[in-house]
TrEMBL record:
Keywords: Signal. Residues 1-20 form the signal peptide. It comes from Tabrizicola soli. The lineage of its organism: Bacteria, Pseudomonadati, Pseudomonadota, Alphaproteobacteria, Rhodobacterales. It comes from the Bacteria. The keyword Signal applies. This is Lipoprotein.
Length: 51
């Protein structure tokens, strides 16, 4: 059962990213650019709440 859920989630992820146009974010549809704040993110910026 766990494998089927994993395969389903991967298929959904691939489906969402495959529909994105170049230069746009797949979910929001916003334009990508060099001034995007996500360009400056690092793994250290991702903190689990409560830890």
């Amino acid at each position: 059962m766990k494998g089927i859920v994993t395969i389903g989630l991967l298929a959904a992820l691939l489906g969402l990213t495959a529909c994105a146009e170049t230069g746009q974010y797949p979910v929001g549809g916003d334009q990508c650019g060099p001034s995007d704040p996500v360009q400056k993110l690092d793994a250290a910026d991702c903190v689990v709440p409560g830890s």
